[in-house]
Amino acid sequence: MITTNPFYELTALISSEIMQGYIILMFILVVLGTVLDMMHKKSAQYFFENAKKAKESAKRSVSTGEKSGLAVATLANEVLTSGEFSNPKRRLSHLLTMYGFILFVVTTAMMIFGADTSSGTLPMLWHLGAAMLCIGGYWFWFFIRVDVNSEGVRWYQLRRADLFIVSLLLTATFALIWSYLQSGTGAVADMGWTSLFFALFIISNTVLFSTVMWSKFAHMFFKPAAAFQKRVAEADGSNLNLPADYDLTDPAVQAKFPDIPEYMGKNPAYMGPGIRRESANHY
């Protein structure tokens, strides 16, 4: 099963051109859904307006070379390693899901568009990607989700916000079951069961890629840009127009904010790291 290309066997029923057309259609739906999501939420407008405000309040100019370094740092931390997650379990779950999804999607396109072999490395990577996606996704769904972990919501209580993760998990799950049945190794590997789970795979996959506007899918494109903008704002001193991190014992700060010594004394006690005082155990 693991070394068998399920799409190669499928060509006996569905032509390669139809499968390729379906992949192209899903790509178009993702692009349209992302654009509509940005227009509806006005995220792009907010992003550019925020960048303009930050530039106007910048205290120094950031060179092209420095921006390149910040872009590399963003890629290495927020994108490739999900370093923004303080909770190690959430981070590992996210990495398994993210890389599993990328591996699953890329190998699907490669097998349908280019690699017409019935077995080999690509099918192994396809199955590995689906398995990683399931492990990371189900771990998140049953044990890490903030509303389940911290708010007592049952795992089976669905909201529209769950559309992305549910359709994603079902797509990977049905893909693995379909591949297992089609390989002929299962006790119930007949045409009826195989066709059923292939249909479920297509339905869940279509829901995943056609509902981008109502899911969290689009944030994957916006998140890196926002993370990079934050790094630039910290470098140029604008700090996203947020207040500076003052030392409350500094006489200059107390002169600027006279209510500090009035209510907290000349040497205010250090209040600690705030939210970081508690170990990361949230979404």
List the helices and strands and how they pair.
Layout: H1 6-10, H2 16-41, H3 43-56, H4 64-79, H5 88-113, H6 121-144, H7 146-149, H8 163-182, H9 191-210, H10 219-236, H11 251-256, H12 259-264
| Tally of distinct domains | 2
What is the helix/strand order? HHHHHHHHHHHH
Quickly give the structural class: mainly alpha
Question: Using DSSP, what is the number of strands?
Answer: 0
Tell me what portion of residues adopts beta-strand conformation: under 5%
Radius of gyration, in Å, reads: 24 Å
Q: Report the sheet with the most strands, covering strand number, pairing sense and barrel closure.
A: none
Range of helix content: 55-70%
Averaged pLDDT, please?
Answer: 81
Number of helices: 12
Shape annotation: elongated
Low-pLDDT windows of residues = none
N-to-C CA distance? 36 Å
Written overview of the protein:
The protein is mainly alpha-helical. It has 2 domains: 6-236, no CATH class; 245-277, no CATH class. It contains 12 helices and no strands. The radius of gyration is 24 Å and the shape is elongated. The two termini are 36 Å apart. The relative contact order is 0.14.
The gist of it:
The chain is built from 12 helices and no strands. It is mostly helical and 283 residues long.
Which key features would you list for this structure?
2 domains; 283 residues; mainly alpha; 12 helices; single chain
